[in-house]
User: What shape does this take?
Amino acid sequence: MNDANWAAIGDVLHAEAKLLASGGAERIVLATNTMHKLRDQIMQGIDLPFIHIALATATAVLAGVSKRPAFFATKFTMKEAFYLDILCDNGLDPIVPNTAE
Assistant: This one.
């Protein structure tokens, strides 16, 4: 993953988002959990709605009866707060496997 050079990855994704915006996109959707860590950098100076995958996930889970979804993702995504905080802020209590699990 580019040796975790988040700034460089964010620069690439920001440039792509700007191209999408200038091409007439009406919203930005990022179809990868981990890159949502860079949401602020990606959207800097872009005045379009950003569809956050964690919010869409929370909305879908809340439409059912469960408030404790199992959360499986890359180890990085499961350990960082950028995704889990949104789930928790929306009333969910995600179950995240530990290393042994």
